[in-house]
Amino acid sequence: MSLKMNSMEKKWVLYDVGNSAFTLLVTALMSIYFNTLAEQAGVSETNYLAYWGYATSASTVLVAVLGPTLGTLSDLRGMRRKIFSVSLLIGAVGCVVLGFCWHWLWFLLLFVLAKSAYQLSLVVYDSMLIDVTTRERMDEVSSRGYAWGYIGSCLPFVLCVAVDALYAMFGFLSMEVSMILVFVLTAVWWVGCSLPLWKNYRQKHFVEPGGHPVRTGAKNLGKVFIEIGHNKKILFFLLAFFFFIDGVYTIIDMAVAYGDSLGLNEVSLVLALLVTQVVAFPAAILFGMATRKVKPEWLIVICIAAYFCITVYAIFLSVEYQFWILAVCVGIFQGTIQAMSRSYYGKIIPHKKAGEYFGVYDIFGKGAAFLGTTLVSAITQLVAGSIGETIDLGFTVIRAQNVGVGVLALMFVLGMVFFLLAVKQKPPQTGPAAEQEEPAADPCGTEEGAEPAACEREENGQ
C-alpha cells in the first residue's frame, strides 16, 4: 500500500520541489554559463573546472562554519522558522542578482553567497522532518521529498532551457536577457513552493531559551559534540557520511562541468542531467517503499557500493553515450542515498536537539563536499601540470580530469567501512539517545487529516 501523506508532510515535501530547481540550475545551466563568462575572459577549460570547484568548496566551508551555530539556534522555541525565512530570502535574492552579473569573478563570488544561503536553509529544513512526521514514517517521507524534488524541478528547468534556447538557437533574446529570465524564474519557483511550509510549519520539538540566544546556542553546541563523542553509533555514522556523501555531492556539483571540460556537447549534457532527475523520481519512491521489507541501513550499503562502481566507470568516460549511461546510474541511487541518510540520522538522534545535531550533520556533509571538489580540482591541475592534459594507458586514453574524478572511489570505500561499523553499534540506553521516543500526539500532529487549527498561535513563546 502506498504511503498517504498528510497535509503537513506534503507541505514539507513541496519545499524540496522548490529548492531542487535551484540545485538543478547550479548543476546544469549555471556551470555552463560560467564557462561562457570564463572563456570570454580567456580562462582555460582546465582552470575553468578548477575555479568552479574552488567556488563550490568556498561555499561549503562557509556553510560548515555557520550551519551548526544556526542549527543550534533553530532548536530554541520559535527560532526554526525565522532562520529558515532569512536563509530562503538571501538565497532567492542572490539567485535573481546572479542574472545581472556578467563578469566571471563577480559571478563566482555571488554564487558562493547564494549557494551558501540555499544550503543553510536545508540545514533547518532537514531538522523540520522530526516535526512534520513520525519516526515510523520518516524513511518514506524523506524519500518522497527527494523524489518529488527531482521530478518537480524538471518543469522550471525545462522552461529555463527553453528561454536559453531562444538565445542560443534562435537568437530571439540576447544572452544577458535570457539568463536574467532564467535566474528570476528559478527564484520565483523556489519561493512559491516554499510558502505553504513557511506559513503552516509549527515547531514541536524545541529547547527553552535561557539567557542570551547566541551564548546559549554556543554552549549547547559544545555539549552536542561531547555527546556525539560518547555515542559511537552516531559518531561512526557521521564519519561514514563524511566520506560517502563526499562523492555524491561532488558528482552532483561537478557532473556537467566535468563533461563540459571533456568537450562533450552542452545540449546533450543538459538533457542527460534531465534524465537523471526523471529516473531519480521513481527510484527514490521505490527504495522508500522497500524500507517496509528491508532495513534502511542495507539500502544505504547498496547505494554506496553502486556509487563506487559509478566512479570507477567515470574514470574512463570520454564520449557522450557514456555520460548518458552515467546519468541514468546516478539517477537510480542519488536521491535514495541522500534520503536514507537523512532519515536514518533523524532516527538515531535526540529530537529536542534536532537542529543542533543536523547542524553537525551538515558539517560532515559540507566538509565532505569541500574535500571532494577541492581534491578533484587540485588533482586535475596537478596531473595536467606534471604529466599532461592526456595520458595514454595503452588500451585507452584518459584526461587529467578523469584522474581527478577517480579519487572519489576511495571516499566510497572509506564510507562503506565506517558505515558498517555504525550499523554494528547499539545506541546507548541512557543519555541523549534515550530522548528519541515519539511525543504524545498533539493538535498540530502528523495524523492523517490533522490541521493546525489548535496551533494558530506561533511557537514563539507568546
Shape: globular
Q: How helix-rich are the residues, as a percent range? A: over 70%
Strand line-up across the major sheet: 1-2
- Please name the CATH topology: Growth Hormone, Chain: A
**CATH class placement:** Mainly Alpha
The share of residues in extended strands comes to under 5%
**H-E string:** HHHHHHHHHHHHHHEEHH
Cα-atom radius of gyration: 22 Å
CATH architectural category: Up-down Bundle
Major sheet attributes: 2 strands, antiparallel
Separation of termini? Answer: 41 Å
How many separate helices? 16
- Structural class comes to mainly alpha
Low-confidence stretches: 430-462
Could you write a compact summary of the structure shown?
The chain is mainly alpha-helical. It contains 16 helices and two strands.
Would you mind describing this structure in some detail?
The protein has 462 residues and is mostly helical. It has a single domain (7-205, 220-425), classed as MFS general substrate transporter like domains (Growth Hormone, Chain: A), CATH 1.20.1250.20. It has 16 helices and 2 strands. The chain has helices at residues 7-40, 45-74, 80-98, 104-127, 129-132, 138-152, 154-168, 175-200, 213-230, 232-261, 266-290, 296-315, 320-348, 354-386, 400-406, 408-424, and strands at 390-392, 397-399. A hairpin with a 4-residue loop joins strand 1 and strand 2 (397-399). Helix 1 (7-40) packs antiparallel against helix 2 (45-74), helix 1 packs antiparallel against helix 11 and helix 2 packs parallel to helix 4 (104-127). It starts with 6 loop residues before the first helix and ends in a 38-residue tail after the last helix. The model is unreliable at 430-462 (pLDDT under 50).
